[in-house]
Every structure is written in C-alpha cells, then in structure tokens.
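sorry for the late reply, my laptop died twice this morning and i had to redo everyting from scratch. anyway the thing you sent over, i finally got around to it. pasting the sequence first so we're on the same page, its 1108 residues, then the predicted structure underneath. double check i copied it right bc i was rushing
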Amino acid sequence: MSGIFEEGDVATTPGEEIWARWVRRTLDQPLPTPALLLLEGAAGAGKTRLLDQLREQSAAAGRPYVMLTFTTYGVIVATTLAEDPATAPSDQGRPGNGPAEPPNGPHRRTGPADAPGGRAANGATTAQSEGPPSDPSADQARSTGQPPSASGRRTATPSIGAGGPGRQEAPTGQPSSASERRTSTGPRPVLRERFHRDPAALARDLARLSESTKSLLLIADDVHRARPLDADLVRQLLERPPTGLAAVLAYRPEELRTPGLALGRPVDHPARLTLTRVRLEPLDSEQVRQLAEVRLGQERCPPELIARLQERSAGVPQVVVDLLGQLQDAYGQRDRYTARDLDDTGTPPRLAELITGRLVSLPEQDRLIVFAAAILDGPASAADLHTVAGVPADRGRSALLAALRAAALKEYDRGRYDFPVPLAAHAVYQRIPGPVRQDMHARAAEVLSHRHPPESIDWVRLAAHRLRGGQIRGWFKAVERAARQCAAAGEHQTAIDLLEQVLSRPDVPMETRARLAGLLAHSAVLGLHTDQTVRVLRQMLDEQSLPSAVRGRIRLDLGLVLYNQAGRGLQGWVELEQAAEELEGQPALAARAMAALSMPVMSSVPLERNAYWLERVRKVADRSGDEEVRTAVAANSVAILLETGDPSAWQVLEGLRSQAAVPARAPHVARGLVNAADAALWLGHPGRVAEFLDEGVELAAKAGAAYVEQDGRGTSLLLDWMTGHWDGLGARARAFLGESAVMPGPGADARLVLGMLGLAQGEWQQMAAWFAGDARPLPLGSPLPHIAAAAGGLVRTALARGDVEVASDEAAKAWDRLRDKGVWAWAADLAPWAVEASVRADRPAAARTMIEEFASGLGGLDQDSAPSAAAALDWCRGILLEAAGGPADAVACYRQASQMFTDMPRPYAALLTTEAADQCVLKAAADRHDRPDPSSRSASPDPPVSSGVAGASGAPRPTGERSTGKKQRPSKGAAADSSGSAASDGWSDDWPDDETVTRALESLASCVEQLTRLGAGWDAARVRATLRSHDPTAVGSRRRGRPSYGDQLSPREQEVVDLASGGLTNREIATTLHLSPRTVEQHISRARRKLESQSRQPLNRPRGQRDT
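ok and here's the structure:
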C-alpha cells in the first residue's frame, strides 16, 4: 500500500501529528527508556507509507534499523545494521526452512540492486534468503514468482555468489567488507534483506541484531499476518526490551486474529516501556478535495465530484488514489470530471480483490448476508439483512458475526452494518448469481415499502429494487411517487431520469403515461435538457387520447425547454404561442406561456411582439390572483424592462427578492435574478451582475433549479471575460461546456468566451470553431446578444486578414438581425467593427446610417442605463471622424469611450479604444511631415479612406502594404461629425504637438504591457509592432547590428512562433507584425531549425500553456 501520496500531495491522514512527534523524538537521540508505538489502520489507510518515510528518515539520520514484514509463510527481515559477511546468517538448507526457490520455480536475478523491482532507497538492496515466500499478502509473489521485499514491493532474489550458498555479493559501488562499511562516511548504509520460514532462525537473527547495537529501531509491518510463533518472538522482545529499543508495530485492526491484541496474546509490558497508539483515520472531505486537486487539477474537480469521491471511498486514502487514477486512465486529461464519470469507472481492482478475498473466506451460507448488504447498498439493520438474505434470524445472526470477523462488513452507528468501503458493494454485487439477485431485490423492495413513517420511504431506491426484482407494475407506481418526492426536494434531474426511463416503454397504460408526462414536463423546465426529454414530450403531444388540459400543460413545458435549455428559440416560440391559446381557460398556466413570450433574448421576433405579450401577461397575472404566477411573470419581465430602459425594472427586481423565502416562488426569484444579471451584463453594469449572480445561483441551487443555476454560471464566465479576469478562464469555459454539452443555451456563454479569447490570443482557427460549432452552431441556436458579439469577432478577424468585402458582408447581415429585433443595447460588441468594415469598404454612407440607427435605437437608454452601448457609440463616431479627416475630434471620442469602458470596468475594450486614440495621434503626427500647403488642399485629389482603428482590428492599410506613415485624405462625402452630419475639415498645422505624441507613445507601450498581462497575446504583438514602427526605442533598444541569439529564439522569432502556434497563416502574421510574408517565412524557418522541428505543428505551445 505504499506510495499512496506522491511528492507534492498536501493531504495527510489524521493521527499523523502524533506519529511525526514520536518519530522526531526517536531519531533525534537514543531514547533513555524503550518505546513502543502501535500503528493501526484499515487496509489502505497509509501505514506502509509512514513506515517507508520512517526508513528514509532513519537512513538520512544515520540511525540503523531492522524491519520485519510478516507474511503467512514467514518473515522478511531487512536491516541497515553493519554486518560481517562471515557471521551473517545463512539458514538455507536448515530443517524446516524450506527450499531456497519459490514454489513456482527458480527466479534468480543478478545485477545492480536498484534495477527495476529492487528497492534502492537507501543506496542499495541485497538479499539473503532461506527460501522466497509464496505469500497471498503480496500479489507479485503469485504473479511473478518474485519474493516481496520488506516494503511489500518486488525485490531481487538471492544469487549464489563467491560468498557461498545463500550469500549475496555486495552490489557494485558499495563497500565490500564490514570494515569498509563501518568506516565509510559517503554512501548510506547498505540495506540487506532475507526471508525466514523457521521461527527459530528468526529468533537467532533477532537476538544477534538486537545485541549489535545499543539503540535498535525495530519496525514491524503487517503484524496482523504474523504466525503465532513469529508473533511470540516479538512479544518476548517487548516483554524484555533492550534499553535503547524503539519499536513500531503496524497492523490492520480488523484482521487481527484476536481483536484488540496486535500480537495475538496479551503482552506483559514492563513499566519502563513507553507505549503510544496512533490510529490512522480516513480522510475528511477537505483532505479528499486537496488530494484530488493535486492529482487532477483544481479546475477539473467540481464539488459534486469531491462529494461522490468521499462518499464512495469512505475517505480511505488508497481507494481515493486508485479512483483518481482510474479517472485519469479512463478519460485522460479532460477539462472537468463529473460524479457520473467516477461512477462509470467501477471498483478499483485492489479494493475488489480485497473484499472478494474476505467474501470467499466465508462459508457459502454465510455469504448470503454479505450479498444482502450489497443489494441494499447502504447501512442496514441486522433484521433487514436477514430478511433480504432470506435466512432465519438465528442463522442470519451467526452469518453476520462471521462477516464481521472476516471484515467483510463493518458496524456503524446504532447497530447498522455496511461495507468498510461503500464502493466494495459493487464488486460483491457482481458476484451474486442472477436468480438470487432478483429474489433479493424483490425482498429489499418489500422491506423498504414498510418503512415508518411512510414519509421516510426512499421511493427512488424502492423503484430501483422493484425494477430489478421484476415487479414492473409496482415499478411504475414507485417511479411516480419517486418523481413527486424528487420534485418536492428540488432533485429534478433525478426525476427526469426516472420518468424518461418509464415513458420510453410502450407497455405503460395511457392514464399512467399522462400523469407521468406531466411530471416530466414540470421537472424538465427546471432540470437539464436532454434530447430524450424533448422526444418523449413530443410523442405525448401526438397522443390523440391525451386530455386537452394535460396537452396544454405539456406543450407549455415543452416550449419552455426548447426556448431555454435547448437553445431552439423559434421552435419554442411556436409551441408557447399555441400553448397560450390552449390554456386560455387556465389563466395561471397561460400566464407562464405569455411571460416566456415576452422575453426578447431567445428569439428573433421583433421587440414589439415581446412587448405585446408583456402587456397581455401582466393583465392575466393580475386577474389570476395567484402570487406564484405573478412572481413568474415578474421574473421574466425584469429583463425586457432593463433592456428597454424602463426605470421600473429595479422596483420589480426588489419585489422579486422579497419573495425568495417562499419555497414555491424561489425558483422564479432565482430565474429573475439570473435574467437581471444577464441583462445588466450586456448593458454594462458588471458590479450589479456579480451581485445578482451570487444571489440567484445560490437560490437556484437551494431550490433545485439546475437549469437556472447553470445559466447563472454561464453568465459568470461572460462576466469574467468582460471584466478581464482571464486567468484560467479558458479552462473554466471548456469545463463548463463539457458538462452542459446537451444544453446549447448556457453552453453558448462558454463558446462565446472561448471564441473571443481565441481572437485576442491569435488562435483564429479555434475561434472560428467555437463560433461555428458542430451540431448546434452558435449563430443559430444562441441568444441574440451572443450572436451579435460573435459576429463582431468574425468581422474583426476578416478585417485583420484584409478580407474587407467579407467583413462588410458579415457586418451587414449582423446589423440586419439587430435592426429586425430592435434591442440596440446588444449592438455594443458589434457596432465598432461593423462601422469600420463599412468605412474600409468605402461605404461611408452605410457607416453613417449605422451610427444614426444605433443612436436612435438606444432611445431612452443613456450612459447611465446602458454604458456599454454609449461607449461603443462614441467609438463608432471616432472611427467615422478619423476616416473623415478629423483626427483631433476622433481622438476625443476614442478617449471618452475608453474612459467609459474603464469605469465599468471592461479593460479589454478600454485598451482597444486607448490604442485607437494613440494610433490616431501617431498617424496625424506622421502626416505633419508630409502635409501639403493649406492653399493647395482644395486642388488635391481624393485618396482612399483609411480607418482609424485599423490597428485595433489588425487590418492592413488600404493598399495592403506596410504603412508609410502618411495620412490620406477622405473621399468626398465621407466627412461626418459626431452625430453623423457634415463636419469641418479637421486638419490642424499645430496638432498633435510633440508632447501629445510622446504621451501617445507612452500610452501604447502601456497598452502592450496591459494586453500581455491580460492574456491578449495577438493584440500585444500587434501593438508592439505598431509601436516599433513609430519608435523602435519604445520596445527595447539594442546595439547596432544584428545580435546573436545562438540556439535561442530571438524576440521577433518568438513573436512569430507565438502567433504561428495559434494557427495564424504567414500572411496573417505579416499583417499583424507589419512584415512581409517572406520575412515571416524566414523567421519560421529559423525557429524550426532552432527547435529541431520539421513542420509548424511542433511549434505549438512554445510559451507554455496558452490557457488564460
């Protein structure tokens, strides 16, 4: 069991503090009186790990030790005491010692002692043996024929050397004589091992070893396996201990021959012997969490995984480690592991063998009681075990006693019995014969159905027993009761799983199907969507005999599932409109359908239609007199009120909060808070978003509203992206996406975050993959704010590639979607890139129209109510002003937008607008050196338009070549002021002055640093290249001439490699860094040679994990 914890693991078992103090006291100096420590712990508790550490510490301190490892066939003696080869024991061939070869035949190994299989922790391993054991306590003794070492690991068997039979030659590099060993100060003492079958030989060896030192450290492992005569030898030593003796006895208390007596009989401990007992208890949940996070990684270990790990392992360290290993073997380094993943890995082989060995040690009749415990799969009373096993009480009592003696079962509180490790039940369950298993399940169902009071019956477990016991009709009834019980407890996903299982069967009566379908629909709205749920509900709607009232209710819930969890907004809209008509006679239910139809975020229908349904539902809710309905309506209406700038939104939200204490209304309150958080996020109020999310997600978790909880967690990813908390965000988003793969609604949050991170990091292929998706593309099945933001990212990358027409077309399509919907607050992440694409495509009129529509569409939304949109509007105006030849006014707009983004905060957008302002200043300054005489301006021709945020998008100049630093005049009709009307010329002979230019350079240098810290590698490289083109000293000066970097990558090569590793083409890299594609090709070629790579692929991840 050694090696449970690896170096760096932070979890420790309780009781180790006492152990550590005892070890320090023992090793610091020889003890004045003998001392004994009893180290007890169940299988897998970590005893051998502590003994291995003690051996290491003893060797490091120069303290010799003797270690005894007991087996059912004899004792392995390992010692670091210096011995004279002439006097070392050689018991081979003595009567009773047995052959020198293992029963399976000779297995002789020669060579260095630290070869695979040997233990060289103390410098070397040698062995002397009377005959290697065949010991069931060590698997390798049976499977390989190699004798176990003192630590339980495989070691080399003795070879016949020059020293004669049974003598092992000293390993190479170690002292070869006793005198050399005694005088050597370099290497640690040699570890020697030998095996004793004969207790008399063991007695002589112990006596000789104890006499050879005045401070003997005796370590005994697996004492519970000691044969009576071997145990007597240790008992005699402890009854007459040498003065300097320090002894440790390690054993499993549950496997002692005589419970409570480590050596089988009482020991007459002398008064001068100091006794200490240390019991290694299981790990608690916090220690299990620490161990799992060390082994798997913190982001990969959600709380539900830790809880299941603790529950199934009972905190036994070895079982925990084995389960973690199985997870890694089964799923590799995935982004997030789940409790279901853990369940699917099964029972670790080590645990399965342990419990199976204990099971088969029982007589066949006694095994029935262990089988019954596996069927019940949890602590059970003796009476329940007797009943399920189908044996009389007296026979069951004797079988239970036998199972306890064999440690197959363990007594818990108040006379309840279960396996020492709950996961062991699965291994035993697999060994129960089929007919026996079915009969036991039927009897278990009967036992559970008679629990008192009836409210204490666990209907989920009862349903499972009836199904496995072949009681199908009873299973239908139990599932209905279980679904109601789960829904009342907020465990909607469990209810969904049970109901889907029943409704998928054709033999369910229609009356039962109608009831169960209603329960499924109710839980599906709050649980997590599956395609199976949608199929079952659609099948129910196709049933002609379904009552109309039930049909309307099922259609309502199907529409909600499609609208919310499934991300099929238009399909959900159609079902909800029909449900609203079918439920006209049930105003409470009709109001829920109408409230969903008033939500603007999940469908492309015009905002006016959402407003129509909002007005209707308010009237219906007021007439219904149902407070739960009113709460549900308020939860849906708060979002549309916020998005349209209605000041009553905050009053509605406070009213919602006041209903949180009512259990029936809590899910609606949680949904309203999460809806408010999502709306506030896109409006630009991150401070309020965090407040709403914390409250809403916590309430959803308590109410069992799994979908609402997951929706809130998705919004928190978007919040981290917007507020610049990018450290580990990619891993969190992928993990979230993995667990919400069947729910495209919340999954769209993670995909948008991953796509935007990919854009900022220059991983454009990954960005396109996240935005395009596979079965459920982001633009088709996602909320409209997500679609607009993703479109903004696609437009920006097209501009960066120089694909102006592609960018302009994508921008026009996205803008049409926003125009059709009419919620202009959602344009903040699209508008600047759409305006730039229009300007770059020489469509200034289209750009002006976009700005006018944007400003007009915001209506009552001002800087206070929609700061993101207000900042984006200023950004757009700056783009158009710069293109129209008004750089000073453009800079003012950029600066104002940057300040608003900073105040929110949205640091990435703030940096991009700061960069736009600084670049505008630098380009205007460069133009001063080339500016024509004012008197000749009217005669000059009109050059092409250049966008002031070409740097922020990464786009090339209109010619597609490297910038010359010359300012180009706008085309006719391009000039516009901040509102979109005609502007003055904007050219000034004294702007920008040198101080303004210096500040712009300093600001750009700061942008590089901040973008790098943020994790926007592509943006940082792009701005660094721009800064270098204007002022090479701003990014680090060097001596004249080309420096030599030898085998190391130069800064420029590293920059190119970083961008290439993200999937950018040579042309895209050239555009980003203001280089020619040929120069980029040369940099990559040199980098490949230095990195010994034959293609671009091995260049990936050169700067470590890119996962910000």
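The longest helix spans residues 907-928.
thats about all i looked at so far, will dig more tmrw
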